Amino acid sequence: MSEKDLLLHICCAPCGGGCVNRQEMISPDRKVTLFYSNSNLDSADEFEKRLACVRQLAEHFKLELVVDPYDHEAYLAAVAGLENEPEGGARCRKCFEFNLRRTAEMAAESGRAFATTLTVSPRKSSEVLFEIGSQWEDFEKIDFKKKDGYLTGVRFAAEQGYYRQNYCGCEFSRRQAENCRQNKKSES
After folding, report:
1. C-alpha dihedral over 138, 92, 58, 136, to 10 degrees?
2. CA 74 to CA 40: how far, in whole Å?
3. Closest C-alpha among 50, 49, 41 to residue 15
């Protein structure tokens, strides 16, 4: 029996670039479809800015791209009460679950297995993502961090001129990133 096609949740082109061409992680004979699901992003403008580069990435690798409509209100409802949690805390777990649930639903509709590019980031715990993803039968635990996945993505994004954001995407992580930058300036 052959492997199911793979629906790969993608958060941005720099992370995706460290995942989609990794033959040691994804069989080259396997059909991969990108699923851009990012309702956690703090604005429709940020959603579109990242999507433009994801479209370029999909075109570069000749991959199908499915775009989940932006629904920030649904994301805010999913993380309600966790707005003041630190980056990497309970709010992030809920965010991961929110995006993986949407991916799982799309994968089930199309009979695919699924994974996420979020595992490529050194700022995201693959163990936590695997724990959350394991609630769905067709989730595949692919740790794209291995074998320099993150650096591969960063280099590829630079070569391609992709937009590379400096925060996760939600208004809470943006605020935290801005506070860190301001604190560093005042320390100088």
Report:
1. 10
2. 9
3. 50
From CA 118, how far away is CA 147, in angstroms rounded? 15
Q: Does the pTM exceed 0.85?
A: yes
Beta carbons within 10 angstroms of residue 74's beta carbon: 13
186: Cβ contacts below 8 Å, ≥ 6 apart: none
Q: What is the CA radius of gyration of the chain?
A: 16
Q: Residue 106 has which token pair?
A: 């799309």
Structure token pair of residue 109: 């509709």
Q: What tens digit of pLDDT does each residue of 45-102 get?
A: 999 999 999 999 999 999 999 999 999 999 999 999 999 898 889 999 999 999 999 9
Burial of 127 (C-beta count, 10 Å sphere; 0-12/13-18/19+): exposed
**Looking at residue 68, what DSSP letter applies?**
P
User: What's the rounded Cα separation, in Å, for the pair 145 and 135?
Assistant: 22
pLDDT tens for residues 88-112? 899 999 999 999 999 999 999 999 9
Pairwise CA distance, residues 39 & 17, whole Å: 21
Residue 22, pLDDT > 90, answer no
